[in-house]
Structures are given as C-alpha cells and as structure tokens.
Amino acid sequence: MFSPGGSPRINCQLLYKHIQELTSNDLRKRKTAAERSMIRLGITFNVYGEQEGTERIIPFDILPRIIQGEQWSWISKGLKQRIVALNMFIDDIYHDQKILKDGVIPEHVVRSASSFRPQCVGLNPPHGIWCHITGTDLVRDGDGQFYVLEDNLRCPSGVSYVLQNRQLMKQTFPGLFEAQFVRPVDDYCSQLLDALNYLAPEHIEKPQVAVLSPGIYNSAYFEHSFLAQQMGVELVEGRDLVVRDRRVYARTTKGLRSVDVIYRRIDDDFIDPQAFRKDSMLGVPGIMDAYRAGNIALANAPGTGIADDKVIYAYVPDMIKYYLSEDAILPNVPTYVCWDDKQRDHVIKNIADMVVKPANESGGYGMLIGPRASKEEHAKFVELIKANPRNYIAQPTLSLSRAPVIIDDHLEGRHVDLRPFIIYGRDIYVLPGGLTRVALRKGSLVVNSSQGGGSKDTWVV
C-alpha cells in the first residue's frame, strides 16, 4: 500500500484518506459486521482433522488490496498466455507427446508424476479444451515483480469468496467503492455458465448443466452450492447420477433426466470407480465411457492434474517457448528440481535458505520453510529428498509483499498472495482481481485458510 518512502501509492491514496477519517472503533465495528454477514450467509469452509468442529468462516479483512489497471492488463495477458500453453501441453501429453520426444521435458518426469493418467491417453475433450477453470497463484517479491507460484487446474477453489467478499465490501465502504471505479466481478458465474454450455454437444439446444460435488463434508462445499445456485443449475453428488447406454442421467422425483455438461469438483481418482479408484464411493460408474463417447462434457477434463505437479511447473516457461515461440510474460519463481543430481546437491547445501515443497501436496502441507525451521527439520527434509528426489522441488525464500490488515485496534502488515481465476471457453476470460489470501499470523508466509490464513477483496482500479 505504501512506497518505500512511506507515502501511499497513487492507487491507494483514496483508501488511505478514508481510513484516516475513521476511528479504530469504526473499523472494528465494520469488521465485526462483515464477519456476522459471512456467518449469516453460510460462507464457511471445512477443515479436515479439526477436533473442535468442521465448519468455520475464512477470516475476512475489510481493507481491500488495490491493483492498478495497467499492471492488471499485463498480469491478465500473462495468465492467458500461460493457460494456452498449459492446455497445449496437456493435449500433447495425452496424444503425440512431441514435447517429450523433442527433449524439452524429460519423459521420466511426466511418466513418474502421480497425477499422470494413462487412462486419459487419446481423450479428445470438446473443442480441444482441457483446463476450463484455472486458479493460478501469484506472489509479488520485494522487487515489485509478480511471479507464478503454482498452477491449480484440477478443482481450483476460492472464487465464491471473491464474489461474496465483493458484496461485503460494497456494504462496508459503499462511497469509497464507487469513487475508486473498481472493475466488477459480478459476471463470473454467467461467464462460467457460458463456457460450460459451450462444451455441450452441438445438436443440443438447451444443455443441462450440473455441478458435481463430493458432498457436504468437502472443504469447499459452500462454493459448490453457491456456484450451482448462482448459475441456476443442479448441484448433484455421485449417487444422484447414473449411466445408461453411455449417457448420463440425474435421478429426479419424475424419473431420469439427461445431463450434458458436468462441472466436476471431484478429483480424477474418485470420479469413476470403473476407470480410476475402484473403492471410490463419490463418483459415477461408467461416466468415463460416456465421456469418451462424446455424450457428456466434463470441466475440467480428466487428466488436467498433470499440470498441477510442482515438478512439471518448473518447465512451464519452456512449454511457452516450445508451443508459442514466446518468452513467458509472467515468470516462475526460480525453482530447483531435486531429481537432478546437481540441483539436488545445491538444495541440500542451502536448505536453510530454501522453501522445499512436495510435488503433489496442497494447502501448504508437507513443506519446509528453511529460514523458519530448526536444524532437526532441515535434517529430516534432507533425508526425505534423498529418499524420493522426484517428489521435491525447492525455491528461494521470497520477500513476499505485504498489505495492511486490521489487528485488534490497529493496522499491521501481513504477507499476501493472489489467486486470479481464468475461464477457458469460447474465449479466455480472466476475472479482474481474484482472491487475495493473507497470512494472518505475524511473520508467516503460509496464506492457506486451512492453516490460519484469511482473505481480502482485490480491487482492480
């Protein structure tokens, strides 16, 4: 919010002036009112393994994070470029595998990825689109540059909080909101529905769309129900669907009703026990046969998780160069892959300064933040890396940018990241802003809600 000299940046001056005119009691009252609204609206998430109860609200900080329009245009352009290249990569991996044959990415890196799905080889999703909804995590370093921290293409969550946060902000600072000329986010659900309808077989005039959820105990169930409600489509679970003659139907009180497009919020492993995990009780037996026959569209397409692998992530700039003959607009965080002997030695020697991450964990779990860890933890991760080098990457510890947060009766800086959401349908749509996640624990770099993080509204002005 502030330049190194201590003065508020141009795009934050109105917000700064507005805060100056409020008392700390005013801010506290508005924060409390916003949190009460979240509880009343049911804006919650579930935390697995919590003893004191499963549901809680994500702490919401009412001070918005503001991004200048010109900078956002550059970010948006970089995200579109990245999604196009990732989509081409996924399609290539499940077809000709040219990028492997040309040695741009080592074949063993893809073959050994736990998210690579041999069952998806030869699949042809509608219009050649695999990654319909993506949440790309960005961080800003001390140099002011935005970097891509990771890609989320399987079942990216958090957009419902973006939309609800915006509604709360309009109630909290109505005058300020209008004065800032903030770009709207309200059309996300209509954009999503348009993209889903675009996937339906061409001969169907009015496609039947459904959101497939694992059920009420899933951590993002609020989002599943919210998006279904906002799009005006059915929210279903696996037990609500049945496959007959390679077509998918929903069970209703009036009998079976055909379904043409499914926005799935279930991982590949669980979507079809006949194709993936045989013990899955969440999916729909036979849905992959219906998908191969072209009778159902799935978003995101099965197999997209290969691009979520953090080792694959290290090669995305090479993908962009290979498929598009362009340099990456949004750079990766510098990344060391531990399967490479030379890079692994460097990581082990410098582990006290590194962030070490497993290839397929999410939610901030299973990682080491070297500067904050003990020597015992360093030693433990050295052994983990040596035992399974393919499973780990390492990155230098970034000086993540901070934003002001209300703490008790005053403001303090807390580290933030940003998750913009991208919809790939007839065109590519980038939601202006996205979810700013905040590490509410002082000094923490972990912004995930499951580990005490909160969120902010993100204003593109």
Largest sheet: 5 strands, mixed
Strands ordered across the widest β-sheet:
3-22-21-18-17
Into which percent range does the helicity of residues fall?
25-40%
Radius of gyration: 22 Å
Kindly report the oligomeric state of this protein: single chain
Structural class: alpha+beta
Strand percentage, roughly? 15-25%
Structurally, the number of domains stands at 2
| Number of alpha- plus pi-helical segments | 15
Number of strands: 22
From the N-terminal CA to the C-terminal CA, the straight-line distance is: 14 Å
Low-confidence parts, pLDDT < 50 over ≥5 residues? Answer: none
Outline the structure in words.
This is Circularly permuted ATP-grasp type 2 domain-containing protein. With 461 residues, the chain is of the alpha+beta class. It folds into 2 domains: 18-331 and 399-460, no CATH class; 336-396, Dna Ligase, domain 1. 32% of the residues lie in helices and 22% in strands. It is built from 15 helices and 22 strands. It has a 5-stranded mixed sheet. Strands 5-4-19-20 form a 4-stranded antiparallel sheet. A hairpin with a 2-residue loop joins strand 17 (402-407) and strand 18. The longest helix is centred in the first third of the chain and has 25 residues, at 69-93. The radius of gyration is 22 Å and the shape is globular. The mean pLDDT is 92.
